[in-house]
Amino acid sequence: MRSFQFTRSLWRPRWHKVTADLWGNKVRSFLVISSIAVGLFAVGLITSMYVLNGEDMEAGYSSVNPASIQVFTSLYEEDVLTHIRHVEGVRQVQGEYIFSLRVRRSGGEWKPIDIHAIPSIEQMDINRVHLEKGVWPPRDKEIVVDSYKLPELPVGVGGLLELELPSSRTRSLRLVGAINDQTIGSTGGGGFFLAPAQGYITLETLDWLELPNNQMNVIFVTVDRSPNDYAYLREVGNRVSDAVEQSGVTVYSTAIRAANDHPNRVYVDAISAVLFVLGFLVMFLSGFLITNTLSALLNQQVHQIGVMKTIGGRRGQIMGIYMVQIFIFGLLAFSIAMPLSSQVSYSLLGYFSQAVNTQQQGFRVVPVSVVLQLVVALIVPQVAAFIPILHGTRISAVEAMSGYSQSNPPNPKGWINQRLHDVRGLSRPLLLSLRNTFRRRGRLFLTLFTLTLGGAIFIGTFNVERSLSSYIERIGRYFMADVNLTFKQYYRIEEIESAIKEIPGVRQVEGWTAASGELMLPDGSVGETTRLLAPPSQSELVSPILLEGRWLGPADADSNVITVNERFRETYPNLKPGDIIQVKIAGRERDLQVVGFFRLAGKSSGYLAYGTYEYLSRVIHQPNRANTFRVRSEQPRLNLQEQQAMGRQIETHLEALGYQLADVEAGESLTATTADGLNILTIFLLIMALLIAVVGSIGLMGTMSLNVMERTREIGILRAIGASDRAVMELVLVEGALIGLMSWVFGVLLAFPISSLMSNAINLALFGAAADFTFTPTGVFLWLGVVSVLSVLASVGPARNATRLTIREVLAYE
Amino acid sequence: MSTSDRPLIQLTNVHKTFNTAAGQYNALKGINLTFSQGEFTSIMGKSGSGKSTLLNMVTGIDHPTSGVVRIGDEELHRMNESQMAVWRGRNLGIVFQFFQLLPTLTILENTLLPMDYGNIYPPAEREPRALELLRMLDLSDMADKLPAALSGGQQQIAAIARSLANDPPILVADEPTGNLDSRTAERVLDIFNQLALQGKTILIVTHDSSLARRSTRRVLICDGELVNEHIAHALPSLSHVQLLKLTKLMTPRRYETGVTVARQGALDAGLFVLTGGRVDILRQGEAKSLSLITTLLPGQYFSNLELLETELCDLTFRVTSDGPVDILCLPLAQFDQWLVENPSAENALRRSAAERSGFYCPQPRARPQEPRVAPFLATSYQDPLQQEG
Questions:
Q1: Contact A811/B56, CB-based, under 8 Å?
Q2: What is the pLDDT of residue A398?
Q3: ipTM for this prediction
Q4: Pairing relationship of beta strands B217-222 and B201-205 according to DSSP bridges
């Protein structure tokens, strides 16, 4: 009992001081907690997003049991699948009939749609889909579509979807559901974003579409082990191909994909790469923010620490009080930041997972993120507070009792002081602001570092966004034609050209050809499926972004030269310009010489190569004929609407002449579709920039406010010697603006390496190559605006309080 | 600032109440006080007595809960904080206990700063004026130094230079020597004296008795109320609370020229404190003639206790021929009651009475040839604040 009373009497006032300090100055506590919380939030958000991003993609993708091997064949019947099931290494086999029709879109135009006719649709084992709306599976004469393209269709779930059959007749299917199919784009080609809409029907519906209902043309296979080992997948894939051909079925192409390799993995990886860099930077930012905030807070407590020391408080006891107080601050900030960051990261990823076609897993708290936040919340503040507490416990009794400190006077001989001393011609109030800014070098450094880092990340994020956006603009160089026409069959180029040129306003028509080929590996096995595009060798409608080597020219007209995209570099890092690769085109292996590498929309765009029309048209036995045509208007720089109008005019004209068109696409629209994935990244980067701005802003406000609070006594003196509200405001605002401005200058400088770091991270993930450095003034000036406005906002409130309250303190109120 | 005959600073029925966690606290209770131009006044009181609050009323740093503070023609409560700050910068110089020079500005710049804010002097005149002030206070060598390079005393003198920057008519100082050694404190007091002689009105809050002695007027405040300055002066051995009680109990009376205020055996009051005019103390000689022992001046007292001690001397207290006299009186019955309630005061007064009786009635009785000045009266003033130890 005695011991209890002793403890009570000893401990109570101390802990009461802790709670009284927290509750007594609510504004200050709010500033401190929000500054710490915002730092923790940033750490929590970014680490959670980083972890969830990767986890969601892998777990979501593997949960649909994606096909490791996809074999595109001539039509076959069910018994072939039975044969394949016995091939070594095969675990599951599923057949589908995939074919293209045209669907009427919202604008009335016809666009391609890939239809998957799936036998035993209710028992799909491979490439499972996730129902998002309506019902699954569809029944006879019903169709389900992928939810990504649903907005482009003229009807919603429940409506009738109009399809154009190969015979040009139309049929309607009831749209009964929308699903998420993560395997779209998994066969290479243009990848997810360039893929047409996908429809899913039962085999019975094929009758209604005038197609045989007992045949299939694609085989999906999963393997018995190592689903992420490409070598093994290729080995099994070759065995499956051989088995298919042994069954008398022709194999057109084979696609191999690991079970963890989501078709849009590249974008997810790019997001992760940015998050990783940001996470690293934000850890620093948050650490400095907390250090700065707490050193400002504890500097205000130095006097009290000294007083406690003079009345017998031991250093350990005093440190204990403040460590507990800081612990409570950290804990409160953590309790705000942790759930908030978990929720916001989940919501943000929800948006991105929809955009990149991944399946978001359930809400969950990321343990690593929680631990990191706890470490930052509980350990960083203690470390940050150590020096101010130590300083406080070293204060002399006289300084503590008088509140007058000469312990840290400005060193008049210091270089900065000498320079500041030499400043002439400024009014004393301005001089005061200027010198006050540099008065506490340590604090200034912390404040500047925090703001500089925040600013640099903001500007850097903007630069990366700009660099990506400008890259997206450059992608337009691959689609310089105003209208791209795809026909259902090959036509003579001269015939189509003259037909199109009958339309007024057409300047140029180019006939292109295209083919699919399979890369043949040195061991004779079949590699990746490659899309070959062949513009005329003198084409003016492609202006490529070259990574290495050269582009095609008139001299290459009849030669077997190609340029390949970044995906080849990713898969075959040793491939160099001048190397010969073997590609199986139209059933025959051809030697093609790679003369250059170009960059398109990232590694996810599939294997794409450009050859010359002259060469490829011969290879596919369609000389002087083409099934795709590129049309350019006399009028330069048509916008999307103008291009679409031109497309409709050409379509009407050609159809009237009896030509069968599969697709009419505006150039701008092709560019936009190609860049869809990159656009998601730019949106992501803008959101990150916004978040950093919010974090930086709250940090800045907290820092500036605490700075002004520290000046309370001085402001009181100025009021006593005649400084008006305006004079005090000017003093504080000039100081705030000076700090803001300095941090801006340093931020702009630091933004160079940070931009470069982030750009390289994202570009390596996207293109497998370092980025061209882009520096945009937008972020620089936006941050200047943010810093200026916030410096003012952050200073006004405390300065107003200071002008009202502090003279009494200055005169040592009774 | 007005140059009329009105007092320069006038506080009328000033109340100040603070709402604290412990409830309402009345720091000032109906203060009526005036200060004239050129007065050098020290405001004294124990800690918590309200002296700094009183000073804050004069400087406009705080506003009265009720009552009026008028300085010159300005009623301070009519100004907002910002106007007040500007007015203060032009009309009041404030000197703080801990100097409060701005550490990042040189001494010269510190002195220039109020001029920049006040904007009274054209920019071209400011620096010469600041240098002149520093020269006057022997600080011109330090003009380009930062405060940290100066001793505490030098900093306080620099702070005085700053307070004089706009040539304000009033100088206010809160414990200006509280943080200085005695030699530097003397130097500061000399400066204040010189300034008062030049016509500045100086108010200082101080615990320093030597500083209080150097001022021309002393105002004592206790529990938020003013102690009558004459009572405080007359009865320095009493505590502040006792002095305040007497202030409340004693009532003013006026006696015309030649009137006998009191005589042995015919006393209607117990305690008399002169507030104006003069009173002769006369003793009846052997030939029934009255001989003058001494003359009492304002700020001096006599009491029933002296008459009891000098019963055989037959003393008479009479108004001098040069005018009426104002006296604060405590009726006999109340005086006796007060003595019963304040035994320490009774002891002090009885000791004083015994000492005086030796002067009034020396043994053997001998008629003094000339009126004498009672040494204990002339030097009787003791700083009440010395009681604070």
A1: yes
A2: 57
A3: 0.73
A4: unpaired
In this structure, the answer to whether residues B171 and B256 fall within a common structural domain is: no
Sign for the pseudo-dihedral over CA of A153, A158, A159, A162: positive
Structural domain total, chain B: 2
Query: Which B positions 193-232 lie with beta carbon below 8 A of chain A?
Result: none
What is the overall mean pLDDT for chain B? 83
Residues 6+ apart with CB under 8 A from B123: none
- Check residue A416 and give its pLDDT: 64
Chain A positions touching B173 (Cβ under 8 A) are none
The alpha-carbon gap from B86 to the nearest alpha carbon of chain A, in Å, equals 5
Q: Are residues B131 and B194 in the same domain?
A: yes
Distance CA A696, CA A330 (A): 19
- The chain A residue lying nearest B27, using CA atoms, is A814
Cβ of residue B256 closer than 8 Å to a chain A Cβ: no
Residues B264 and B193 in one domain: no
Confirm whether B2 is domain-assigned.
no
* B256 and B148 within one domain: no
Which ranges of B149-251 would DSSP assign to H, the alpha helix? 152-163, 182-197, 209-214, 229-234, 240-249
Low-confidence ranges of chain A (pLDDT < 50): 1-10, 401, 404-407, 811-814
Q: Which one, of B145, B165, B159, B230, lies nearest residue B188 by Cα? A: B159
Q: What is the DSSP letter of B266?
A: B
A811·B90 Cβ contact <8 A? no
More confident residue, A87 or B310: A87
**Chain B residues whose beta carbon lies within 8 Å of the beta carbon of residue A402:** 98, 179
**Structural domain ending residue among the three candidates B157, B192, B227:** B227
- pTM of the complete model: 0.69
**Closest CA–CA distance from residue B264 to any residue of chain A (Å):** 48
Domain ranges of chain A: 1-64+299-307+315-409, 66-258, 483-637
Measured between CA atoms, the residue of chain B closest to residue A726 is: B82
Chain B's closest residue to A721, CA to CA, is B89
